[in-house]
Every structure is written in C-alpha cells, then in structure tokens.
Amino acid sequence: MPEPTPEHHLPGAGRTPEEGAIADTGMGGAMDLATAEGETLEKTPGGPQGTGPSEKARSLWSDAWRDLRRNPVFIISGLVILFLVFISLWPGSITWLSPLKCDLAKAQEGSQPGHPFGFDGQGCDVYTRVVYGARTSVTVGVLATLGVALLGSVLGGLAGFFGGAGDSILSRITDIFFAIPVVLGGLVLLSVVTSNTVWPVIGFMVLLGWPQISRIARGSVITVKQNDFVQAARALGASHSRLLLRHIAPNAVAPVIVVATIALGTFISLEATLSYLGVGLKPPTVSWGIDISAASPYIRNAPHALLWPSGALALTVLAFIMLGDAVRDALDPKLR
Fold it and tell me: N vs C: which end of the chain shows fewer Cβ within 10 Å?
C-alpha cells in the first residue's frame, strides 16, 4: 500500500489562501493582486489619495467665511457698510463744513461748486448734513442692535435651557410685546421725552425689539440642547454654566446673528421714521429723518433736499439687509 503523501508535499499546503492563489495563477495573478491591493490602499481613508485624520476638519464658521468671501452680495454690502462706518467716525475727512452752518440767502438753491447736493430750506449744505447724518443713524442702529441681541439672547437662552415656569412666563411677556405696534408705541412713549440725545430712542428700540431675538434664541437653544454631545457633557457632570457657554451658545448663536444683522437696518429705518414724525431725534441733532421731514414741504421747489437724505437712508438699509441675507445663506446648512 502506498504511503500517504506528507502535507508539506501537497500543492499549496502550508500556504495562505493569497499565496496559494499567486502560486496557482503565476506571475499574472501576482500582478493582478498587487494592483488590487494598490487600489484598496488608495481608497482607504488616510492613504495616499484619502482624507486622513491629519487633514484639519472645517467648522461651521470657517465654511461660512469661505462662502461669504465668494458671495458678491456680501462683498458689495460689506464695502458700503465699511464706507458708512468710516464717514461716521471721521466725517471731517470728506467734508470741511459744519452741518449747523446755514445761510438763508442760499435756501433751496441747487448744486454749486463746493456744494454738490445743493442747499435745503434753511440754507444748510445738504451734502454735509447727509455725511453727518450717517453718524447718527449708524450709532443708533448699532447700539440698538447690540442691546437687543444681548438682552434677548440672555433671556431667551436661559428660558430655553431651564424651561419650566420661567419659560412660560417669558413666552407670555413676548406675546404682549408683539401685540404693541412699534410706531404707535414710539409716538406714545417718546412724545413725553424732552432729551435731544440718542439714548431715549435707543432705549425704546431695545424695549420693543428684544422679544423677537428672545424667541429666536429660545428656539435655537431648545434645539441644540437635545443633541448627543450636550447630553454626553451633561452625563460627564458638566455644570449648567459650562453647558451654556461651552457647548450650547457657540452652536445656537448663528440664528441670532442673522436676525440681528437684518434688524440693524430695520432700526435705522425706524429711527428715521420716528424722527420724521417728530418724536425721535430732535434738532440740533443731525439726522436723515429730521432732514427728510424738514424738506417735505419744499419737495416741488427743492426736490434735491429730500432725495439725497432719502437715498442715503435707503442705501444704508438695503446694505444691511443684503448683508443679513448673505450671512443667513452662509450659516444655514439647509441652504447649502
């Protein structure tokens, strides 16, 4: 009887399946296997063609900034706003006259050398008053927006995070404020103010403007606090302040920024409306609303005195609204 052949003499014995496949198929099989391994390596994350862990992941803010830099709407509106900020801080750099220096002998006259916008009904240089009016409008809009964003974010964020009776009370208070007409409220509240400064107008805007930001912040916080990373931090023993400041606020602030940016243009328009009605800013304060109100009776004889401050107001409000739309498109993942 023939003896059984030892296992090490059998074809393919003691080899791995890959080695056996190479031995059976010859050099061509070895080349095919090497090619397959190379393709697998290239498709593997972290390989030569992959996106390995060493590549830095982009955050929401970096993606938003990248999109904003490529958005022509953001660039144009940003340049307009930067120019408005510049003339608000240094109006003397582009005009050499005083907005309060008037000459009745030149009242309602048109454009002249050195006075490109002509004169208003009091003989004041329209160009100079338009330049100095930007300071008032931008100051009121920025300060009112900061106050509204700060107060509304704090109240809405705390109500959305803790919930309970405080959340219910805040919701009913915001409903009451939403029922107050803004212009009518301004006529009632500001009619008893005799101050010529911007602070009463800013305080009124903050008083009636915070409920909208508060509701936005509340809804955003409620959405973010249900995410897994917040629940994990809570399970690890993170305090309420740490949860709010480190985990929830950075991820819930984007909607607040969008609404506040758009509201800034609205506040500038509201200031001009209240000043036009005579309950906002008062002379000798220089404001586009005051100039529009003063030029309205002379619209037939001196339309330039009305058109230039009106155009500056419309351009400013449009620039901030366009900026808010661009920021919203960049920060909203649903629009990507």
Answer: N
- Domain map of the chain by residue range? 60-335
Topology (CATH) of 60-335? MetI-like fold (1.10.3720)
| CA–CA distances in Å: residue 9 to residues 1, 18, 303 | 18, 18, 108
User: 15: which 2 tokens?
Assistant: 């080899």
Structure tokens at 250: 């950075």
Amino acid at 163: G
Q: Provide the 10 A C-beta neighbour count for residue 270.
A: 25
> Tokens 């916080």 — which residue?
221
At 90-136, the pLDDT tens digits run 998 998 889 998 988 899 898 889 899 999 988 999 999 999 999 99
- Residue 163 near residue 146, CB atoms below 8 Å: no
Would you state the structure tokens that stand for residue 156, as one six-digit string? 């809405």
Could you tell me the pTM of the whole model? 0.76
Split at pLDDT 50, 70, 90, the class of 336 is low
Beta bridge partners of 115: 112
